Amino acid sequence: MQAEIQKVTYEPVTIRLPRQGDRCPWSGLSRSALNDLVLPSKRNKFSPPVKSNLLKTKENSTGIRLIDFQSLKSYLLDI
């Protein structure tokens, strides 16, 4: 009897912004396109359509932008 091999696929809870010049491996969007979706700006009437959080410590002035993957996926499916 052979054991069946099952391929496990998963979706992340959050994703990071890709490096400058790279594209997101999950959505194919550029860093600037993702920034337009998650940061308040004139382009989105200061109401970002995709949820994100900034992970940083009090000592640091910069941090890691974490994008809610389900929110991004829902937005992309609705457009």
Q: Which residues sit in consecutive blocks of at least 5 with pLDDT less than 50? A: none
Radius of gyration: 16 Å
How much beta, percentage-wise? 15-25%
Per DSSP, the total helix count is 2
Q: Can you tell me the overall shape? A: globular
Main pleated sheet: 3 strands, antiparallel
What is the H-and-E element order? EHEEH
Mean pLDDT: 92
> What is the percent of helical residues?
10-25%
Class from secondary-structure proportions: alpha+beta
* Oligomer designation: single chain
Strands side by side in the biggest sheet: 1-3-2
What does this structure look like?
The protein is α+β, with helices and mostly antiparallel strands. The chain is built from 2 helices and 3 strands; from the N terminus they run βαββα. The protein has a 3-stranded antiparallel sheet with strand order 1-3-2. A hairpin with an 8-residue loop joins β2 and β3 (64-68). The mean pLDDT is 92.
Short summary:
It contains two helices and three strands. It is an alpha+beta fold.
Keywords:
globular; 79 residues; 15% strand; 23% helix; single chain; 3 strands; alpha+beta; 2 helices; 3-stranded antiparallel β-sheet
What are the SSEs and their pairings?
Layout: E1 14-16, H1 31-38, E2 52-55, E3 64-68, H2 69-78
Antiparallel strand pairs: 1-3, 2-3
